[in-house]
Every structure is written in structure tokens, then in C-alpha cells.
């Protein structure tokens, strides 16, 4: 799996070489280069080898800078993998922060689905009584409930 490290937006890419863009319209630029030897006066950069910088347009018309050590895969594929990973991160954030699930009681797939569905019902009901915006949580709980009955 490619290494991922947090870097600032303004961290320069040294000795950068532009790569040809593929057919994916979301990819704005694709370059290979090197990051500075130091991130700060006292911190050595953990990525000394060549890295790849891919800049993509997000769904909200913002620019996202992705740094990876995968120099071979198509830029569109790397961007798609990052997007899928981000969806997983958002899912776990929903579980932890919105539904307040700290651990799962059961270990089977069905037990996890049932726990999410019941926890979601408990969280959605009080919000709906006071007229809050519950569309995303309710939609998620509905998907979980559907997948419980579909299995």
C-alpha cells in the first residue's frame, strides 16, 4: 500500500516533471518530484524518494492535492482510490460521532448491521421530534436497515 503523509498545501515539489494527463477530466495536474529534505527546522522529511503529486477537482469545485509514492498507477485510479478511502473515513466518523458507537457488541456482519440500525433509530427519533435536519442520518440508517433485510 502506498505511503501517505500529511504535508501542507504550500510544500513545494522540487525538480518536478509533468506527466501527460489521461482521459479523466477531474485530474488537473500530475507531476513527479521530490519534497524538501526538511519539513521544519527540526523535522526531517520521512519521504526522501520521488513522490507523485496529483491535483484533482473535487465535487465541490475545490482543488485537492494528493501525494503518493505510487509512481506507476494512472492518476485517475489513484484519485478514485483516495475518494473511496475518504468515504470510509466519513462512514466511521458517522458511526463514532453521530451514532455514538464506540465498539460493536457482536462480531458477525448481521450483528453489526442490526446494532447500527437500532442505534440510528434511537438517534433519529429525538431529532425528528424537534424538527431537526436528519436526512443524511436517516438515509444512512435506511440503507443499513435495507441491507439487513436484503441479506
Query: What structural category characterises the helix and strand content?
Result: alpha+beta
Q: Which term fits the overall shape?
A: elongated
Helix proportion range: 40-55%
N-to-C span: 31 Å
Instruction: State the strand order across the main sheet.
Output: 1-2-3-4
> Strand portion, in percent?
15-25%
Quick check: average pLDDT? 76
Which segments are poorly predicted (pLDDT under 50) over 5 or more consecutive residues? 125-134
Rounded to an integer in angstroms, the radius of gyration calculated over CA atoms is: 21 Å
User: SSE order, as H and E?
Assistant: EEEEHHH
* Biggest sheet details: 4 strands, antiparallel
- Total DSSP E strands: 4
How many domains? 2
Number of distinct helices: 3
Task: Write a structural description.
The protein is of the alpha+beta class and 151 residues long. It folds into two domains: 14-87, no CATH class; 99-150, no CATH class. The protein has helices at 75-98, 109-129, 135-150; strands spanning 14-18, 27-34, 51-57, 63-68. It has a four-stranded antiparallel beta sheet, with helices on one face. α2 (109-129) packs antiparallel against α3. The longest helix is centred in the middle third of the chain and has 24 residues, at 75-98. The chain is elongated, with a radius of gyration of 21 Å. The two termini are 31 Å apart. Mean pLDDT is 76; it is low at 125-134.
